[in-house]
Amino acid sequence: MRLFFGSCFALVLAAVIGLGATWLTLTRGVAFGALRIGGWTAWPKSGSVDIDPYARAAIARTGELPLGTGDGVAFYARSDDAGNAFDGRCTFVISGVTPPARYWTLTLYDPEGRLVANMIDRHSFTSAEIVREADGRFAVSVAPRARPGNWLPTGGIEQFVLVWRLYDTPIGVATRTTKEGPMPAIARKGCP
Amino acid sequence: MTRLLLWILGAILLGGIVHLSTVLAMPRTAKQDAYARLAALAPVNAVALLPAPSAQAAIMPFMDPAFAVAVCRYDISSGPLKLNTPVSQAYTSVTFYTRNSVAYYAINDRAAGRRTIELNLMTAEQRAQMPTEEDVTAADRLIIESPTTTGLILLRALAPEPGLMPMARRTLAGAQCRLEEARP
């Protein structure tokens, strides 16, 4: 009898541990080989056959197609450089210089990867359409209400994700330091 | 007490096995992966232009709205595939994915170095069967080996400004992907 209860207990506990760990790793986005520059994180290996099993499982679950390594690399940010989580009711400013790339795009999504509805139908900026300072630097305001200059509307949603995609770039699996790939700074500029 | 600890230890070990096997099985069992999402829209071995993602609807999550996207859902079990795509003024790329969304090859217009990107897709066996002299004449065409017989080819053209999107879509409308005719 004790053996029976013991094995039942062990099996249930094993299922909870196993499935719980799988669910946690797939929803939290655990993947190896992350490249962190400032508040930005990329997984360059996810765009090649060297993709790890966790990233493969996560991609199969969400239904997205990763950016191929020969195409470009995608950097994700869910919080600013100081660690404040992105809140669509606050204003965040992204500024500075970008790593070398033929083109880049900056896109705002909700945490599930959907575009966010807004009045001016603006979901992203490309490197060609951004308004720059005379010295080539730029600033993008990510805010719920209209801003002068480059304004990326948040639609006032609670959480959002920014994705910086660099196309035709030397940044990738071999990149190690911030010097090789300077990414723009992200700072919070006030919350209501 | 020791008995309980042993049961817990066993449960943790078994839980680890359950965790690893579910992670490894996920790509094969997922019902809503990219291939399944595109199967309804894209015919086999033909190029289909995808609708642009919007806040209301998107075929896949995390699509870049600055790009026009076309897809060729391929099945090369009966022979190699030829892919031709004109390149847009700004930036065009072609990415190959296996049935389980692993990107195994990607090339952009600059790496291809021409006005059109021309590629031949075949399995390792089909490549081995190619007559050697033909291999030489076909050297100016890029040959890609697919690890699986089915998969996805994603053609993407950048619209640097929203106004250039119709042009990017027109570029991809000129793309072709079809099975090579059987040789006599």
Brief overview:
The complex is a heterodimer of chains A (192) and B (184). Chain A is of the alpha+beta class.
Structure characterization notes:
Chain A is an alpha+beta fold and 192 residues long. Chain A is 19% helix and 25% strand. In chain A, strand 1 (35-37) and strand 2 (40-42) form a beta hairpin. Chain A is globular. Chain B folds into 2 domains: 1-30; 34-179, Sandwich (Immunoglobulin-like). Chain B has helices at residues 2-29, 34-39, 109-112, 124-129, 132-137, 165-173, and strands at 47-49, 67-75, 81-86, 92-98, 103-108, 116-122, 142-145, 150-158, 176-179. In chain B, the strands form 2 sheets. Chain B has a 5-stranded antiparallel β-sheet with strand order 1-2-8-4-5. In chain B, strand 4 and strand 5 (103-108) form a beta hairpin. The N and C termini of chain B lie far apart (77 Å). The model of chain B has no long low-confidence stretch (mean pLDDT 87). At the A-B interface, helix 1, helix 2, strand 5 and strand 9 of A face helix 1, helix 2, strand 4, strand 5 and strand 8 of B.
Jot down its keywords.
heterodimer, A: 192 residues, alpha+beta, Jelly Rolls, six-stranded antiparallel β-sheet, four-stranded mixed β-sheet, 2 helices, 19% helix, 25% strand, B: 184 residues, Immunoglobulin-like, five-stranded antiparallel β-sheet, 9 strands, 32% helix
CATH topology of chain A: Jelly Rolls
Percent strand of chain A equals 25-35%
CATH architecture of the largest domain in chain B: Sandwich
Give the total of domains of chain A: 1
CATH C-level of the largest domain in chain B:
Mainly Beta
Largest sheet of chain A: 6 strands, antiparallel
> How large is the count of helical segments of chain B?
6
**CATH 2nd-level architecture of chain A:** Sandwich
Determine the mean pLDDT of chain A: 86
CATH superfamily of chain A: Domain of unknown function DUF1214, C-terminal domain
Briefly note the CATH topology name of the largest domain in chain B. Answer: Immunoglobulin-like
